Amino acid sequence: MGLFSFIKDAGAKLFGGKTSAEEAAEKAAEAAAEHAEAVAAEKAKAEASIVETIGDLELHVEDLSVSLEGDTAIITGKAHDQATKEKVVLVVGNTQGIAMVDDRMEVEHKEPEAQFHTVAKGDTLGKIAKHYYGNAMKYPVIFEANKPMLKDPNLIYPGQVLRIPSLDK
Known about the structure:
By secondary structure, the protein is α/β, with parallel strands linked by helices. Helix content is 38%, strand content 21%. The protein has four helices and six strands, in the order H-E-E-H-E-E-E-H-H-E. Strands 1, 2, 3 and 4 form a four-stranded mixed β-sheet that branches. It has a two-stranded antiparallel sheet with strand order 5-6. Pfam families: LysM (PF01476). It is found in: Cytoplasm. Residues 36-109 form the BON domain.
């Protein structure tokens, strides 16, 4: 008769073993599960790091929670005042990898909302103060409104978002 050629994994399973296609599918499923676990662990680590940074800056929000969904951060909790709420939004939004912040926080003591300003190349706090307040010498108001995120009024960078409070306070 001679030698005949067959497709090894296409026949009936008479010996109870797995075909190589089944083994490959199992290995792929295991690898996908391990990858999903690693991604979830990395996400949890990033969320915890953001919450820790907010705590380190002494921005107190009751029941603070930060959840990352892709490049969007969802923030919940109860801030004491509007300034704290806005500072938390800025800390999260000025974090690398975050493109959007979904602010779902509540505020215990309501106040007027501040404006936000995205720093452009060549901006200084004085230049920003001149734009919003008509007086460059009002830059300390902006600096104070962005503490503790800003440590030095000369250290701002393009793309950074700052709080610009109204002068009505």
